[in-house]
Amino acid sequence: MVLTIELDREHDGRFIASVPELPGVHVYGATADAAIASAQALAFQVLGDEIAHGERDAKTLRDVSFVDRAA
Questions:
Q1: How many CB atoms lie within 10 A of CB 48?
Q2: pLDDT (tens digit, 9 = 90+) per residue, 21-55?
Q3: Are 15 and 32 in contact (CB under 8 A)?
Q4: Distance CA 67, CA 19 (A)
Q5: What pTM value is reported for the model?
């Protein structure tokens, strides 16, 4: 599974990262690296919750990777 991290910079200088394949995964960071790391962490939490609640088969997540894309 390949997940996209879209990165944008707010007017106040903060970075916002989101994973469009997972609704609700939107995080802020002081740096681009911090925002990306937080987005990856939240994405894994969401995927784990989906597995725990029977909404996703864990076998589909044997190979998870992220690609960065500037918004």
A1: 13
A2: 999 999 999 999 999 999 999 999 999 999 999 99
A3: yes
A4: 10
A5: 0.88
**Other residues' Cβ atoms within 10 Å of the Cβ of residue 11:** 5
Facing residues of 4 across strands? 67
Whether the Cβ atoms of residue 28 and residue 42 lie closer than 8 Å to each other: no
What tokens were used for 60? 């589909």
> How does DSSP classify residue 13?
S
Distance, in Å, from the CA atom of 67 to the CA atom of 9, rounded to the nearest integer, reads 17
**Domains of the chain: residue spans and CATH:** 2-70 (3.30.2390)
Please report which helix (H) or strand (E) contains residue 32, including its range.
helix 32-52
CA 43 to CA 17: how far, in whole Å?
11
The pLDDT of 5-23, averaged and rounded, is 96
Kindly state the tokens that stand for 39.
């987005």
